[in-house]
Amino acid sequence: MTAEPVQTRTRYDGETLAALTTDATAIMARYPDPRSGLLPMLHLVQSVDGYVSRDGILFCAEMLGITAAEVSAVATFYTQYKRHPNGTYTVGVCTNTLCAVMGGDAIFDELSEHLGVGHDETTDDGAITLERVECNAACDYAPVVMVNWEFFDNQTPETATALADELRLGADVAPTRGATSVCSFKQMSRVLAGFSDGRADEDAGTGEPTLAGLRIARERGWTAPDAPSPSPDKPGETITGEPGSSADRKPTTPSDTQVGKDKKPGEDAK
């Protein structure tokens, strides 16, 4: 069923507005409170405009019955929402601790010089937006580069620049793990909005570096320590600390017992 377009201050044409309204209505229906759909809805408008535009902000506000300022507050908080046109591919270089130690900073510096752009800047041809990423949650494959959130593991400055060149030429590139291809930033934004592109089952499964610790533990008979037992005299009680520790200390000072500053005398402190 196609939803009726809302009365709008946006500049979307009728066809685009109708399609956005249908998809946004489907997003809102996933949640008991439709306002909870704001995050995927921002990805939705980004999949149309290539960034969270003025029109995208107004559309989300009108659909959810909230102010544009409220939408902007969310859109400016998360780095996956872009406030200016993004490239076809976001190339994110992890420069957090382990990746940095393994060469992430060198990869970013080489890419920046090779492409002629800095962090969150886009090449003149509109192909690549380069980013420093705090963590790609792939430390076992460090250093890691992501292209539109697809993994390229164990990178070097040379392999990363070669990858960037292939992307700019429009060549097909295959991630190390996950899907077997890389889609555009707009297409990935639609996936993040919750609309499947059929690639979710292309992953070959967990790789050896991720399982190495488990394999070694099994070979050596290592097991996790047992959880502490409840106190014998109080079955079911959670142990919060050794005797005499701060967790075991009884409330004695005014800061332990006084009524919260936001409460009136006689009310329980929150």
UniProtKB/TrEMBL annotation:
Question: What are the EC numbers?
Answer: 1.6.5.9
Single GO molecular function? NADH dehydrogenase (quinone) (non-electrogenic) activity
Basic and acidic residues compositional bias, start-end: 259-270
Q: Which cofactor does it need?
A: [2Fe-2S] cluster
Q: Pfam families, from UniProt?
A: 2Fe-2S_thioredx
- Which branch of life, at top level? Bacteria
UniProt keyword terms in alphabetical order = 2Fe-2S, Iron, Iron-sulfur, Metal-binding, Oxidoreductase
Positions of region (Disordered): 216-270
The family this protein is said to belong to: Belongs to the complex I 24 kDa subunit family.
Task: Give the protein's recorded name.
Answer: NADH-quinone oxidoreductase subunit NuoE
